[in-house]
């Protein structure tokens, strides 16, 4: 809209000056200035009120989840990963770790559901090797429990 307004004002002022009366040309430039001013104010407000970037906090929590996972503290691992996934359901790393933890605790159906969820998320192809490996480990675990 702004570009159209600027083009009309330029055309009316420089190319076809007979297209608009002098008063309408001034009004067009006032509108351009007003539009620009409102955009500047809104842009400044938008930048100042952006939600907090949780990237560092998320990385820290993911590290905590990894530590709990390595210690075998499944409850804390699941709690932290659940928090991460509530904030960002598309967090592939957290969901994959949750699937792995669920497999380790014998909750194979839940682990497979998490893997299914991962495959629905775009960019999950980069994790295809890990997803397939988890599916194979889950299938092997299922066979061992059936014997």
Q: End-to-end span in angstroms?
A: 69 Å
Helical stretch count?
Answer: 7
Main pleated-sheet profile: none
Unreliable segments of 5+ consecutive residues: none
Strand content: under 5%
What structural class is derived from the secondary structure elements?
mainly alpha
Characteristic key phrases:
7 helices, mainly alpha, elongated, 147 residues
Description:
The chain is an all-alpha fold and 147 residues long. The chain has seven helices and no strands. The protein has helices at 2-15, 22-48, 55-71, 74-87, 92-104, 108-120, 128-146. Helix 5 packs antiparallel against helix 6 and helix 6 (108-120) packs antiparallel against helix 7. The mean pLDDT is 87.
Short description:
The chain has 147 residues and is mainly alpha-helical. It has helices spanning 2-15, 22-48, 55-71, 74-87, 92-104, 108-120, 128-146.
SSE layout:
Blueprint: H1 2-15, H2 22-48, H3 55-71, H4 74-87, H5 92-104, H6 108-120, H7 128-146
Helix pairs in contact: 1-2, 3-4, 4-5, 5-6, 5-7, 6-7
């Amino acid at each position: 809209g702004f570009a159209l307004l600027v083009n009309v004002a330029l055309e009316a002022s420089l190319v076809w000056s007979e297209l608009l009366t002098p008063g309408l040309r001034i009004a067009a430039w006032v509108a351009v200035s007003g539009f620009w001013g409102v955009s500047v104010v809104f842009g400044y407000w938008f930048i100042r009120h952006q939600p907090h970037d949780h990237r560092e906090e998320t990385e820290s929590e993911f590290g905590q989840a990894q530590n709990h996972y390595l210690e075998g503290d499944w409850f804390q691992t699941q709690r932290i990963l659940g928090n991460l996934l509530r904030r960002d359901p598309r967090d592939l790393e957290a969901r994959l770790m949750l699937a792995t933890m669920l497999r380790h605790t014998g909750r194979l159906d839940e682990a497979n559901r998490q893997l299914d969820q991962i495959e629905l998320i775009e960019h999950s192809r980069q994790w295809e090797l890990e997803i397939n490996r988890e599916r194979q480990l889950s299938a092997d675990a299922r066979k061992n429990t059936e014997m």
